[in-house]
Design brief:
The chain is α+β, with helices and mostly antiparallel strands. It folds into five domains: 168 residues, Nucleic acid-binding proteins (OB fold (Dihydrolipoamide Acetyltransferase, E2P), Beta Barrel); 240 residues, D-amino Acid Aminotransferase, Chain A, domain 1, CATH 3.30.470.30; 82 residues, 5' to 3' exonuclease, C-terminal subdomain (DNA polymerase, domain 1), CATH 1.10.150.20; 87 residues, 5' to 3' exonuclease, C-terminal subdomain (DNA polymerase, domain 1), CATH 1.10.150; 68 residues, Rossmann fold. The strands form seven sheets. It has a five-stranded mixed sheet. It has a five-stranded antiparallel sheet with strand order 14-13-12-15-16. It has a four-stranded antiparallel sheet with strand order 5-4-7-8. α24 links the parallel β21 and β22. α1 packs antiparallel against α2. It is globular. The protein starts with 19 loop residues before the first helix and ends with a helix.
Length: 712
């Protein structure tokens, strides 16, 4: 996870001041950083940054996308929810996707949320909202059929979660049967642990010499994800219900009414949930809850506001990962002072050298922390990416008394330095110019705040991280071959590059099994199971293969886009290897993929034009049978078509029209070109309508559009 600590190349530049090239580089860096943070928090229960850091980075990403909408990446963090389900559990596909929430950080953000709701709906009248505490726990979806609990699943990546049904049945707050419910009802809520139960659990573990938990959220997540449900039964877990997924008939016509219906069915709901018609009253309730935070007996990290009217919720709909009708108003972060004992350099998959502060352990908001991100060498010097001072120009040195900043997680940020406590003989920190892992030169390219090892595959840190990435859940997901096993096999020289994984059976299989089965933690059965698991991944979906290559800036979402566009490995490889950066039809074709920008495209083509990397990829693919990408299935009349809306729409807002078109499988563009299929022109349409006529593109008025999609 070292790359998750990489700093932004242009982090100190205001979004409004970014050039297009700077914006592309910043979006690429943010995508990589936030993807790592999602995996660490949702899958590994081991956060690598604070809530406040994560929220600030995601907010910056969204602001850049709003300013440069054409640059939005296929692996944009705004399109991500949670992370892939963990190994060891069966998987459940959510009938209705589990979404995350957009965040508000101050009163003005909340007022802007209200304005955006009204603008989208074109509704100047009264809009009521519910407000309830945001529980800091683990999201869970409970499915009931004919009143009986049939399954329970974690959020996972929003579409597929972990099957924790046996564990959920052990929680007293979760009814096994309910009377008077719809035939199908998915109840969603949060599993959590009270402060008193958390302290008692840690005390019991400490007495037995066992592992203690960092905070109640980690304790709840770890307890629910036990492979042995009897362990979960022994843990004091609780559950608050606050939403629903698939449902065969409505619970109510309002959010508050539906929540009260869940309470009547036997679920625990939060007693602080209330309904308000005025934003000032909503904010007053936020402050009331904040003032009670320390005495509630369980962790909360904000207040959630939702449009109360469910018909208005339906009209507002969803963005890619968040509903338009809800927002989480987060509490401010927390601060503490401690000693900086050392600065360690970690080398990530892309060669980034990431400085990490090792701290004298300090309790911040009830959690003991001992590590912090230091971003990059400029940040340590007290400079931003433009060379201008931050923290008043104070540098950070080993031995300094530093202020750390967190908002509910383990690894915080170093925010300030107390120079009055600095030792007289302290010296500035010298950032390494060679890789601490392989000794190769660590290069900082012009305009880049991150220094990177130039060793490539000869650098053990990069090689190991690439191998870990290849076997990770979002990529090849090889059961029995995790990060620990990869590190050991690499150390022993058994695996040096991806292709070696698929040669393990030949090298250590039947007739040669002795070396592996006699290793600590391995027997003949586990070794044979590993070989079977590896063989099963020789048939690999194209998107997972592309993602598994670990090419910089290519996340799982963009890998899916690339797979859908090219269809087969042969077509994809031919395009990448024959392409010239910045010129030619193949380059333009790559950039035409919605979500692929020049930064990602350059990274892709560069990877396939480096002899060592190309040879490594070729050796891997020789051992695989890539599965052709499936074509999207959507039988709507506009599926796969590019649509442009222009002029004034009278029966719906522009936002509603765009959302509806995208839901039907269409791509909505802001400009008319030869690739445009339909232009919907309302009153006042100008140059776009004219260009559509010149190009012979189908022109529809609003009524014609609604008739075409069946909404007339």
């Amino acid at each position: 996870m070292a790359d998750a600590l990489d700093n932004a190349t242009y982090e100190a530049i205001d979004v409004d001041a970014l050039t297009e090239d700077q914006a592309r580089a910043e979006l690429a860096r943010l995508a990589e950083l936030l993807d790592g943070a999602n995996t660490a928090y949702h899958t590994e229960d081991a956060p690598v940054m604070s809530d406040a850091e994560y929220d600030a980075l995601k907010r910056r990403n969204m602001a850049i996308e709003e300013r440069f909408p054409a640059m939005k990446r296929g692996d944009s963090p705004t399109d991500q929810v949670g992370a892939a389900p963990a190994e060891g559990f069966g998987k459940i596909t959510h009938a209705v996707r589990m979404m995350s929430l957009a965040n508000a950080f101050d009163d003005e953000d909340v007022r802007e949320f209200d304005r955006s709701v009204r603008k989208y709906l074109g509704a100047p009248g009264e809009i009521a909202y519910t407000a309830e505490p945001k529980i800091d726990g683990l999201s869970l979806s409970l499915r009931y059929e004919l009143g009986k609990l049939v399954s329970a699943a974690t959020r996972g990546d929003g579409q597929i979660g972990e099957n924790v049904t046996a564990n959920a049945r052990t929680i007293d707050d979760i009814p096994q049967e309910i009377i008077g419910a719809p035939d199908i009802l998915e109840v969603r809520g949060e599993v959590y642990m009270s402060h008193a139960d958390f302290e008692a659990l840690n005390a019991r573990h400490a007495e037995r010499g066992g592992k203690t938990f960092a905070n109640p959220r980690n304790a709840a997540a770890g307890s629910l994800r036990q492979l042995d449900s009897e362990i979960t039964r022994a843990r004091p877990l609780k559950f608050f219900a606050y939403a629903w997924g698939e449902i065969s008939e409505p619970l109510s016509d309002t959010q508050m009414g539906a929540i009260q219906r869940l309470a009547a069915l036997g679920f625990q709901i939060n007693p602080l949930a209330e309904r308000f018609s005025e934003i000032d009253d909503l904010l007053a309730h936020y402050r009331k809850i904040e003032s009670q935070r320390a005495t509630l007996g369980y962790d909360i990290d904000g207040v959630v506001y939702k449009v109360d009217n469910l018909e208005l919720q339906r009209r507002l709909g969803f963005r890619s990962t968040t509903p338009r009708w809800a927002i989480a108003h987060k509490f401010p972060a927390e601060l503490a002072w401690t000693r900086l004992e050392a600065i360690d350099i970690q080398v990530g998959r892309t060669g980034a050298l990431s400085p990490v502060a090792r701290l004298t352990p300090v309790t911040v908001g009830g959690v003991v922390v001992s590590n912090a991100t230091l971003h990059n060498e400029d940040y340590i010097k007290g400079l931003d990416s433009r060379g201008e001072e931050i923290r008043g120009g104070k540098d950070i040195r080993v031995g300094d008394w530093v202020q750390v900043y967190r908002a509910g997680d383990v690894i915080p940020k170093v925010a300030d330095v107390d120079l009055s406590k600095r030792a007289a003989d302290s010296t500035p920190y010298v950032f390494p110019t060679t890789c601490p892992e392989c000794g190769s030169e660590a290069i900082r390219e012009e305009g880049d705040a991150v220094r990177r090892c130039s060793g490539g595959l000869i650098c053990p840190a990069q090689a190991v991280e690439k191998l870990k990435h290849l076997v990770s859940r979002g990529a090849f997901d090889i059961e029995g071959l995790g990060a620990k096993q990869v590190e050991q096999f690499y150390k022993d020289g058994w695996i040096k590059e991806p292709a070696d994984i698929f040669d393990l059976k030949e090298n250590f299989g039947p007739g040669k099994l002795q070396q592996l089965k006699n290793r600590e933690g391995w027997g003949e059965k586990s070794a044979l199971n590993l070989f079977d698991a590896i063989d099963a991944r020789r048939d690999i979906p194209l998107a997972k293969l592309i993602f598994g290559l670990g090419i910089r800036h290519v996340g799982d979402s963009s890998a899916n886009l690339l797979a859908s566009h090219y269809g087969t490995w042969a077509a994809f490889e031919a395009a990448m290897t024959s392409m010239t950066i910045g010129a030619g039809e193949a380059w333009e074709d790559l950039l035409s993929i919605d979500g692929v920008g020049e930064v990602m495209a350059t990274s892709l083509v560069t990877a396939f034009h480096q002899d060592a990397e190309r040879e490594s990829i070729a050796k891997l693919v020789e051992r695989l049978r890539p599965i052709e990408a499936e074509k999207p299935k959507n039988d709507s009349p506009v599926s796969g078509k590019t649509v442009v809306f222009t002029g004034t729409l009278e029966k719906m807002t522009r936002s509603e029209a765009k959302a509806r078109a995208e839901a039907l499988g269409a791509k909505v563009s802001g400009s008319v070109s030869a690739k445009t299929d339909i232009v919907v022109a309302g009153p006042g349409a100008g140059s776009k309508e004219k260009k559509a006529r010149e190009l012979g593109i189908a022109l529809l008025d609003e009524d014609g559009w609604l008739a075409l999609i069946g909404d007339a």
